[in-house]
Write a structure and sequence with these properties.
The chain is an all-alpha fold. The chain has one domain. The protein has 11 helices and no strands. The two termini are 30 Å apart. 41% of the residues are buried.
Length: 203
Amino acid sequence: MRRAIICHALLLLLFLGLVLTTDPYDASAVGQGPPAGSRGQGRASAAQVGTVMALLATFQEAGALPPESSPEANRLIKALIQFQAAFMKSQDQAVSDVLTRALSAKLGPDAPTAVQAFRTSGWTSESLEALVDYLTGNQPWEQGTFEQGLRAYHVGRQDFELLARVFVAARRDLHQRGQDLHQVYRARRLEMPGARKSVMSDR
């Protein structure tokens, strides 16, 4: 079952051409540059693809994934890809501030290193947890500027709320079985593309 959902995710990544992971504008718009607030373009690295696949495998192991090929499953995969892109690449101040504040709330003085690691390699389970916990309070959403900054990446509040629900369910269900979500993620991450570089960045 894990192999099936990972293959499904990989197919969707390929369908998106891995362009949406770093290019928030329509790739078919030949001759048009990226909108203000993006750091540039390029295909996703193996590490960036691997982090998404490892999170999906973690959710699968917890039994928290929506049914394979369902609209919710596709939305979840897109949310992981596009929120990773937004927090890695966006130069919108509201988006950058949310990442910095979320990691600061969770990691304290280690946050600057974690922010830099995220912008190099993308998700870890800890960075996703920090954003889920921080955004649960809703304040950044209510201000409006944060969600406006996400529009270039084709995601919004409802997409993140789906991602947060799945993450929280996975964390809870693994804990009830005596497992730690972060340990499961690290084990799954070693099986995915770009593992060595990403694992080194996590340390």
